[in-house]
């Protein structure tokens, strides 16, 4: 997973952008990322953990592989003195092509 900080000005406030890059050696032959909004920005509340995994009811985003755990990965946003106004963040999923 690769992440970087960028700010995007909106009418409401400045939002944090988290870029998540995914890779699997067999990604071309399986629909692993078919349920993710690849290449599209999406908003997520910074107060709710971001969950990726097999369980579509428990996770924010699902991964289409039966070998993936119900909750494979959980990300928590946290506030520091520099980003104390963080309320929402943008997410951008892409797939790494080797």
UniProtKB/TrEMBL annotation:
Keywords: Cytoplasm. GO terms for cellular component: cytoplasm. It comes from the Eukaryota. One of its GO terms (biological process) is positive regulation of canonical NF-kappaB signal transduction. Its main location: cytoplasm. Coiled coil: none annotated. It is found in: Cytoplasm. InterPro entries: SMAD_FHA_dom_sf, TIFA. PANTHER family: TRAF-INTERACTING PROTEIN WITH FHA DOMAIN-CONTAINING PROTEIN A (PTHR31266:SF2), TRAF-INTERACTING PROTEIN WITH FHA DOMAIN-CONTAINING PROTEIN A FAMILY MEMBER (PTHR31266). This is Uncharacterized protein.
């Amino acid at each position: 997973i690769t992440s970087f900080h960028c700010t995007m000005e909106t009418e409401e406030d400045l939002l944090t952008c988290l870029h998540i890059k995914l890779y699997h050696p067999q990604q071309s032959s399986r629909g692993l990322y078919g349920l993710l909004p690849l290449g599209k920005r999406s908003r997520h509340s910074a107060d709710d953990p971001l969950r990726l995994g097999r369980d579509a009811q428990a996770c924010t985003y699902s991964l289409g592989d039966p070998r993936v755990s119900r909750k494979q990965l959980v990300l928590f946003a946290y506030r520091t003195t520099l980003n104390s106004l963080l309320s929402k963040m943008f997410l951008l999923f892409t797939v790494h092509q080797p």
